[in-house]
Amino acid sequence: MKTEQVGESILETWTADEVEEAFANDEIVLIDVRTPQEFMFEHIEGALLMPLAFFKAEKLPGQSDKRIVFHCGSGARSDKVAREALAAGFGRIAHMEGGFGAWKGSKKPYIGTNMATGAPQVVS
């Protein structure tokens, strides 16, 4: 994990492996900030959707039970919303480096769309 001091706050950048482990152990809430269309086509099972276009940092829950980790397609949008969360007063927030592309590139399981039927299916 990489950390960056942003004012009085900390921005963490997690690898796909770190996210996978923490998510499997129920230590984090994974929030996808891609569009609803991107999410419907393929997503990490169990991730929540809060698209960048509708993102309101002040509506995020606290992190008393689980940490928040954002992700997007490449890491650019999740970095942006993580910084917005820090600006809204979060002391520490995280996002996944490389986004969903890094997740898929690491051969981690996700929910994809069966192109023959249009139905969701586990891809591993």
UniProtKB/TrEMBL annotation:
SMART domains: RHOD. PANTHER family: THIOSULFATE SULFURTRANSFERASE RDL2, MITOCHONDRIAL-RELATED, THIOSULFATE SULFURTRANSFERASE_RHODANESE-LIKE DOMAIN-CONTAINING PROTEIN 3. SUPFAM superfamilies: Rhodanese/Cell cycle control phosphatase (SSF52821). GO terms for molecular function: nucleotidyltransferase activity; thiosulfate-cyanide sulfurtransferase activity. It holds the Pfam family Rhodanese. Residues 24-112 form the Rhodanese domain. Keywords: Nucleotidyltransferase, Transferase. This is Sulfur carrier protein adenylyltransferase ThiF. Coiled coil: none annotated.
